[in-house]
Amino acid sequence: MHDMLRRALNARVTDVLPAPTPVDQAPLLSARLGTTVLLKREDLTPIFAFKIRGAYNRIAQLDERQQRAGVIAASAGNHAQGVAYAAQRLGLRATIVMPRTTPSIKIDAVRRLGAEIELVGDDYAAAAARCEVRAAETGMTVVPPFDDLDVIAGQATVGLEILRQAPRDLGTIFVPIGGGGLASGVAAVVKELRPDIRVIGVEPEDSDAMTRSLAVGERVVLDHVGIFADGVAVRQVGVHTFALCQRYLDDCITVSIDQICGAIKDAFDETRSVLEPAGAVALAGLQHMAATSGLGRGAAIAIASGANMNFARLRYVTERAEIGERREAVLAVTIPETPGAFREFCAAIGERSVTEFNYRLASRDEAHVFLGIEVGGRDEAATLIEALATAGYRSVDLTDDDLAKTHVRHMVGGRARDVGAEMLFTFEFPERPGALMQFLTHLGSRWNISLFHYRNHGSAFGRVLCAFEVPPNERPELAERLAELGFSYVDETENPAVRLFLR
């Protein structure tokens, strides 16, 4: 521990980070959780991640012969950028071996920094194996992403900065863990200088190599790792990092994908920055502990470790964020297939904000509705299910069902055998409580609704797809009712997508 502190104090990090990254207040989370919450903004480094610290410190230690040969590294992304950036600053040749699953934003960033890139395999283990082969062939120096004392010392400077920047009553530091370089470095120096401060490691549930290793007292190898939080997707933690974490880490916890997505949203609300999944893991852990065992005394700080997020991934994150914060419940509800049943069901929901509504007529007896609804937490969701049961509706809670949230919600629909004389429309609904009931009440129960799909996307108006069974001679009357309703709509009955997939 004393040696790691000495290494951290002598690390060459100020060459590339002349000023510490800031520690920002998180007033919204602080108010919600009832304690001071802080964010250590490692997403604000030149490569938008903390990895620049360890990579530069390691490469800066190379002798002249090693510098001439160049450097090589295996990485899922942020370490790659750190190595490429450091090599460029020091005028060295760099090769980066990356998994083929690495987000394009990280690949492009490494390429812009002048490094040679080789894409191999589907995870870090495959890239690391190829890196060792290339190093042996070329004589280049391998810069490990985490299991190296100089790399760990560079990451440990995050802990030194936190101790200088955070309030004196700091009680807990939450650190993301992949291979363990950041967590082991931070824990080692913090425990030397302020042993009263707890250091908590946080991993995704599907990449929990450190949690499992600490539980059994030896390094384990995961058969499979999830790649949503690709920056911490490691099958086995390092020898040095495991030893340091085993000795100095106070605890190691895991969080779900939904919780990570919720943390990304909360970080955006606080900072207007978009963290990558691995970058939000520590904040997800802070919130998870606050909701379960409590944060204990003093302020709590989460290390926002990176912000290299693919823009296309934001759609998935927004779908899961509300569920991750327990602000949305997802239910499957069975309703009778009778005139007016749809409206009666909406009346049973009451003034709650509906976030999603998927329905497709399946038979003339009963219908299954895929329902998303805004709630204040698990207790309110349970109260809603009880209220629906009292009203005579069977429901199944799908909030924690990954299959339902990832796939089924997008597949509700299709062709319906028993539907006849169907017309389909898209509507723009104002996003306000009661808009759906206004729609259904105005139309009455004259025409059977055979399909209904709605998803709240956070805008002023929601897009709705709705189908009615309307005999040809009654279609003029429907047109009059829709005009009186005042909602913007388009008749999509002859849309080619409708003809091919819904009729």
Give an account of the 3D structure:
This protein is an alpha/beta fold. The protein folds into three domains: 2-50 and 149-312, Rossmann fold; 53-142, 3-Layer(aba) Sandwich (Rossmann fold); 326-501, 3-Layer(aba) Sandwich (Biosynthetic Threonine Deaminase, domain 3). The protein has helices at residues 2-9, 27-33, 52-59, 64-69, 78-90, 104-112, 124-138, 149-165, 181-193, 209-216, 239-248, 257-271, 277-291, 314-324, 341-349, 378-390, 402-406, 435-443, 475-485, 496-501; strands at 23-25, 37-41, 71-74, 94-98, 116-119, 141-142, 170-176, 198-204, 251-255, 299-304, 328-336, 354-360, 366-374, 394-397, 422-430, 448-455, 461-469, 488-491. The strands form three sheets. The protein has an eight-stranded antiparallel beta sheet with strand order 14-11-13-12-16-17-15-18. The radius of gyration is 27 Å and the shape is elongated.
